[in-house]
Amino acid sequence: MATRNLASADAESWPEPQPDWDKAKSEWNEAWPVHVYFFASAYLVVSVVAGYLLLTSLARPGGSRTSMNKTTIGLNAMIITFAATRALVLFVDPYFSEGAFPFVVTRLIWSLGIPGFTASFSIMLLILLDTTKLSLAPPRFQKVGTIVAIWIVHVVVVTTTDLFMMYFGEGDVRPLLVFCHMLFVLYGALVSLGYGYVGVKMRGNLKASTQGHHEKKQDKKLRRLVVMTFLSSLVGISVSVVNVYMLFSQFGAYADVKFIQPWTFWGVHTCLRFLEVSACSLVLMLFFRSGKEGFCDRCRWWRRNISESEKAVEPSYTTTVATIGERRSTVGALQT
Question: Among 66, 128, 96, which Cα is nearest to 330's?
């Protein structure tokens, strides 16, 4: 099996094609720095916001000892892992085009952010499931500890794949690279479908609890939360679709082209970066709305009024809505 020195690995030896950078940057003109610095700054803002939430969680009474504070810390730590690594690479060596640092370093930093993206999306889904008393899987799988374990496995997989690709060469281990991409796509798609499931259930509960009543301020705020949940599902599915396209097009490891067309590269990566930033922003917005000023406090009003429409609600819906208020003390720990 052919091997190479990791220190000598470069972006050109990576099996997934890239643009002819000199030609591409000449064609893009100002579109290239706009793309790089806009998204680098957006990722930086996301990581700063998540860092602030992380610090305030640690400063709360009890620190990291309560279960919900641990959930909050885990969520924001994963967002920081993803957004900060993306911002660092885009600022220092965007898409490995400058060669400012050894390729093995920048490639690993970029790849290590991917597990943080899926983990943060998953933890926010667990918070929504816990808040609404819904279930998608056996209880042992709906725990932050399980998500952290999956994150560790994902980190090991992406790190091993990158190192193998750089050490053994593209011809020997490209299937491992494809497997790594498919793992991300499938897991991300399942979590995104979970958001859709929660959105459907929440919308059904909302309709049942307000049937025959004039829409009030609380209803509108709850409706916005439902919309954001559906948007999270849509964005997550879109990320998976774009990654599938990249896997089986000229971006993939088995593509028979040497260089990607400049504007195709710019357009696809602009779309993907936009979706990633949108996903992180939606997770943070859902987190804020799950706090004191969000969904959970307004459920007290929802619970007082649900008795008037119990006959129109299926038993599982009634149970779900009735128990949301009882979760008040637990979910209150999410306030930042």
Answer: 66
The tokens describing 137, both together, are: 């899987």
Give pLDDT tens digits for 11-33. 677 888 899 999 999 999 999 99
CATH number at residue 90: 1.20.1070
pTM of the model: 0.80
Cβ neighbours of residue 5 under 8 Å, at least 6 residues apart? none
> Could you tell me the residue range of the domain that residue 177 belongs to?
29-334
Say if CB 251 and CB 261 are below 8 A apart: no
Assess if residue 218 is contained within a domain: yes
Q: Where are the alpha helices (DSSP H) in the chain?
A: 21-28, 31-59, 67-92, 103-132, 144-168, 170-209, 217-247, 262-289, 295-306, 315-324, 328-331
Report how far residue 19's alpha carbon sits from residue 325's, in angstroms, rounded to the nearest whole number: 55
Q: How confident is the model at residue 256 (pLDDT cuts 50, 70, 90)?
A: confident
Query: Total domain count for the chain?
Result: 1
